[in-house]
Amino acid sequence: MGIKIDKISVKDLGPIKSFAAKFGIFNLIYSRNEKGKTFLTEFLIRSLFTNISRWSNLRKGGKGKVTVSGLEERTIDFSPSSQKKLEDYWESSEKGLPASIAKLLIVKGGEAGIEDGEGISKFLIKEILSGINILDKIDSDNNISKTVKSAEITSSQISNIPQRGEGKQYNDSKYELESIDKQFEDIESEYTQGVLKTYSMEEKSLQDRLANLDKAKRYRAYLISEKIRELDAALNNVPEEELSNLENGLSSFKSKREFYGQSEEKYKSALKKSKDFQWLESALLHYKDLSLKTIKNPVKSLLFISGILTAAGISAAAALIFFHQKSSAAVWTIYLGIICFCFLGSLVSFLVYTKKFHNFSKQAVQNEELNKIKEEFKIRIGMQLTDIALLESTLNEQRESNSESRIMKEQIDSLDRGLRDIRFSINQKITGFFEKELEERNWDTALKDLNQNNRSLKDQIGKERQELAKLGVSETDYLPEDIGIRYSQQEYEKTQSELGYIREEIKNQEDKIQKLKYRICEKTKDDPSISWEELIENLRQKRQEAQNELREVTANIVAGFSIHKVISKLRQEEDTKIQEGLQSEVVTGPLKDITQRYNRLALDNDRLIVSDQYDDFGIRDLSTGAIEQIMLALRIGFTLKLLREDALFLILDDAFQHSDWQKREILINKLADIAKKGWQIIYLTMDDHIKGLFDKIGKEFEAGKYNSFEL
Description:
The chain is an alpha/beta fold. The protein contains 21 helices and 14 strands. Among the domains are: 4-114 and 646-710, Rossmann fold (3-Layer(aba) Sandwich); 151-207 and 493-560, no CATH class; 274-385. It has helices at residues 37-48, 86-92, 101-105, 122-129, 132-138, 146-149, 166-191, 193-236, 240-273, 277-292, 301-322, 329-381, 388-434, 443-471, 489-510, 516-524, 532-582, 585-595, 624-643, 661-676, 688-698; strands spanning 4-13, 16-22, 26-30, 63-69, 76-78, 106-107, 152-154, 157-160, 600-604, 607-611, 616-618, 649-653, 680-685, 706-710. The strands form four sheets. Strands 6-12-13-3-14 form a five-stranded parallel beta sheet, with helices on both faces. A four-stranded antiparallel beta sheet has the order 2-1-4-5, covered by helices on one side. A three-stranded antiparallel beta sheet has the order 9-10-11.
C-alpha cells in the first residue's frame, strides 16, 4: 500500500489564516503571489521530516496537522512538534529507506536542485544506488590514518610501517616489550630468579592446595554426617516396630480373609439349599387349603327324585282335572296338597343338585392350582409331588438350611466389617509410608520393598560410618561450605611431600638472587628495599602493560588496514554498480520521457553527466529549465528504484516555473502518468498556465481523484 497525504489542516501560517483540504491522487494548490504556498510547503517539510537542515531557510510558525495513510493500519497525524517523523517509520520498516529520500519527495520554492548547488551530490547517488557512502565515511583519514593505509601487513604481522603516528607507537611498544623479555631471560639464565619465583608460587599454591584439601576433608566429613542423618531419618520414617505390626496385621488380614472366603462358600451352599424355602412355605399353606376344600361329584339320584316328584305332581293334577266333577271338597284339598308337595319336593331336589354341581365345578379351578404347585415343585425340587407329606418333609429340610444361612449371614457380615476395618488400617499405614494409595494386590510387594529398603538403609549407614571414621575429623570441625575441590587422601599426602621439597629448594635458591635485585630495580624504578615478590610482580605488570599496549596498537593497525583493503575493493565494485544504476531503465526511462532529449546518465568523479545522442553535459552547464526537467526525472527514477512496486507522494512547489510551455505540458503529463500508477502528486503554483494544464489533464481522472484548491 502506498504512503499518501490524506489531509492538511493549517491556520495562522504566514498569509494563510486557515486552510484545510482532503487530497486525492492528483492535486493542485493554486495561489497568487505572496499568498502562502511556499509557507505551506515549508510547513509540510517541518511536519513530516526530522532532518530539515536539508532545506535552507525554513520559516517557523503556524499550527496544524498533516494526516498520512499507508504507514500503519490507521492514519498518522504529523505536525512540526511531532516526536516521530517519516524517517523514524522508514528506519523501523523492512524497506530500509535512506534518509536522503526525503529530499527527493519535496521541491520548495521552485528550487530545481535536490541537494547542492549543482542539483544533486555524489553522496546522495551513492546512498540511493549502492550504499558505499557509509564505507567512505568509515575509510576516511579521520578514522583510518594514512600511516595505517600505507603499512605492509602479511598474515596479521606488521612487516613495514612508517615511523610516525601509529607506526612510531607500534615500534616503541615492540622495543619496550623486547627489552623486558630480555630482562626476564637474564633473570632465568643468570640468577635463577625465575626458578625462585616459580618455587614461591608453587609453595603458595601447595599451601593453598593443602589448606583446601583439609577444608575438602572437613566438608566431606560434613557431607557424610549429613547423609547419615538423612539415612537415619529415612529409616525412622519406616520404624521397625510399625513395620512388624504391619506385617502381623497383614498376616491376620489374610487369615481372616481366607476364613471369610470359606464362610462365604458355606453360606452360599446353605443359601443354595434353602433357595426355595419361602416358596415351599407358601406352597404348603396353599396346598393344605386347597386339599381341605375338596368336594365330591353330586349323585344323580337327586335328579331322579326330582323327576319322580314332578311326574307324581303332574299325575295328581291330571287326575284332579279328570275327576273334578265327582270329587268332593276334601278330595280336592288332598289332591292339591299332594300336587304342591310333589312340585315343592321336585324344586328342592333340583336346587340341591344344582348347588352341589356348581360347587363341584369350582373345585376344578382348585385342582388346576394344585397341579401348578406340583409342576413348580418338580421344577424346583426335581421330584414328583405325591402328597402333602413330601411337601412338608422338603420344607423342613430347607428350613434347617435357611436357619443355618441366616446365622452364617450374620457371621459373614461381622467378618466383613472386621475385614474392612483391618483393610482400612493397613491401607492408611501403607499410604502413610508411600504417600499414595496402593491396590490391595500390591500390599505384599510394598511390604517387601519397605523391608528391603530398611535393610539397604542400614547397610548404607554402616558404610558411611566406616568412611567417616577413616577421615578422623571431629564433629566440631565439620565444614558445611563446598570449596569446589574433591578430597583425596592420596592427593593430601602427595601435596604434603611436594610442599616439603619446594621449601628446601627455595632455601637453596635464595642465596643466589641477591645480586639480581639492583638490576631489576633499575628497570622498575623501585627502591632496593622492596621485597622480591613485589619487585618481580612489578616487573611482570610492566611486561603485561607493554604486551597490552603492543597488542592494542597492533590490533588497531591490522583492523584499520584490513578495513581499508576491503573498502578499496568494494569501492571499485560499487563504482561499477553506481554507473550501472545510473544507466538502468528505471532511472533513464523518466529522463527520456520528460526531457525528450537526454538518454543517459553517468558519474565522473563527483560530477553528474547527462548525455544526448550527440554530446555529454555537466549539470551545472545546463539551463534552469533543463535542470528542472532532469531533477524531476531523477526524483521519479531514484524513488522508483528505491521503492520498486510501492508508491509515495511528490510535493512540488513551482518545480516547472522555468520550463518552456511545451516542456511544461510534457512534465505535467508525466506527473499524471505516475499518479495513475498510484503515486500522489501535490503541485503548488501561482502560474495560471500550469493551473490550466492541471485542470485540463485532471479531467482524465475519476471523480475525487483530481482535486484543485486555491489559497
